[in-house]
Amino acid sequence: IKIEEILSTDLVPGDIMLIPSNGTIMPCDAVLLSGTCIVNESMLTGESVPVTKINLPNPSEDPKAMGDEIYSPEVHKRHTLFCGTNVIQTRFYTGELVKALVVRTGFSTAKGQLVRSILYPKPTDFKLYRDAYLFLLSLVVVAGIGFLYTVVNSILNEVPAHTIIIESLDIITITVPPALPAAMTAGIVYAQKRLKKIGIFCISPQRINICGQLNLVCFDKTGTLTEDGLDLWGIQRVESARFLLPEERACSESLLKSEFVACMATCHSLTKIEGVLSGDPLDLKMFEAIGWILEEATEEETALHNRIMPTVVRPSKQPFPESKQATDQEMELFELSTSYEIGIVRQFPFSSVLQRMCVIARVLGEKRMDAYMKGAPEVIASLCKQETVPVDFESVLEEYTKQGFRVIALAHRKLESKLTWHKVQTINRDAIESNMDFMGLIIMQNKLKQETPAVLEDLHKANIRTVMVTGDNMLTAISVARDCGMILPQDKVIIAEALPPKDGQAARINWHYADTLAKCTSSSPAINSEDIPVKLVHESLEDLQMTKYHFAMNGKSFAVILEHFQDLVPKLVLHGTVFARMAPDQKTQLVEALQNLKMFLNDLCFDASVASPFTSRTPSISCVPKLIREGRAALITSFCVFKFMALYSIIQYISVTLFKSH
User: Fold this and answer.
1) What's the pTM?
2) Which residues 6+ apart lie within 8 Å of 557 measured at CB?
3) Does the pLDDT of residue 604 top 50, yes or no?
4) What is the CA radius of gyration of the chain?
5) The predicted structure's pLDDT at residue 270
6) Which residues contact 532 (CB under 8 A, 6 or more apart)?
7) Where in the sequence numbering do the catalytic residues fall?
8) Which of 122, 281, 439, 633 is the most exposed place for a label (fewest CB within 10 A)?
């Protein structure tokens, strides 16, 4: 293979580039062909947690790996290195360096599209500006009438031609105020300066006025309403398809070699960057809770082998208690426990669409490999053998989620001995993620941010509706919504469970209360929307604040409602307060549905990327009321300036026209 060094500006789609082992800033969008990369994508996503990128499966080695799927940078994000992102470190095969195929360059890349959106932002369709243009157009018509009147009147009075031209054109400049656009931006300029002083930066000043009209705000849950970090509350293991009592600690000696702890030790995307363990906060908390050590192969070790050296995890070496004199036999047993190691052979990264992640690992000295999986409890349970899932699984899960805990389920499967290391590297994840044994639950506590309840109360007092859109469990989200005041204690929450057409039956919606789970309306396919105890959509926003009912639904139900119950969409999204298990594209669909109802919301205000109109230094939602306050101040200033300039022009026009007629 011939390797040459060229300028990044000379790269074109189809080129194969080598990623340096010490990392680089990506000059283009490229799909990873071999090796693994750890990438910081904060420039694009705003998330500071490094992401692991794996190579695109090779269809020639495993035709079933991708099927008839066509590569797309958006769909195959886990295999794509995006322009502008920082590749921190790489892992590679001997003789087969980390290679990536260039797919997009320049303004076609993800970074290029962001830069383009900053340079040429989407035009803001704002009613005040539309009315201003219509008013200016009407002033032009009025000026035209005055112009003709002045010309005719001057000719009849035998005024010289040059005087007629000057006086007639003077009428037009008086009537149509040229300073109007500049004067209307005065409020925006001062609001932007004040926002900068409180740590809110704006790259699209015109949107400040729009913030003054907000009547609905959508919030994410984790990291926005609640703290970024999660604390491990406890674990609840399953044995013989029965839940054991909850346990506070997972690092007890009796569990050291259990499959439950092995899953916690291996099923994550953690990596070491400059000797420091980093990755998803949930994964970090889970791994820290068992007190194990993660060791990655060095560059020198990898170079000595024909394949990527697996990441190894093992229990930390705990010294024997000094108070007790250890016998030789005890010391020997202790040494054996420290030699217990697990190698992570292959990783299937977490997918927000699949709501799970999976790893293939091997215990040192064992012949057969193990598959470990973790993810959303309802998803994990559906992929497990039903005889291993406790009969009270749903009630136990509901009990935790109602209290606001974040629950993760674990599963395990012993793989067949015929699965070699090479076969594992090319196997499809669907072949692994089935017939698993359900192992139990990890219960994480996610505390509310201190500022959240007060900010939401301020927004409610200002008649601004708040909505939670999250990827978390439904009942957990409802619990957090109640805790933070988004749903008041006396308010009822109705869960809309939409079921797609199946076995000849039409799509239907089941309605039930979140607290009792008792059906409150018929599950008949013929839905009478009058049975839904909410006001009609066209009623005023003030009445909406008095509603004692809130709708909640998950992503699957939302998709069915969008497809089969279009007539109910306005009512459900207008009164929906909690949207759980929502995929990223569904969040976009929700925002568009709300905008179709003429709801003004901050769907783009604090988006996590460099292209968001507003960026705040404050890591909480306390910046939202400040922004709305400044938006309202700028809007009222613009409106008052508009009225002043318009009246000033009309009065001057009438006065000058009357004087000229005499």
Assistant:
1) 0.67
2) 496, 497, 498, 509
3) no
4) 32
5) 81
6) 494, 511, 521, 571
7) 220
8) 122
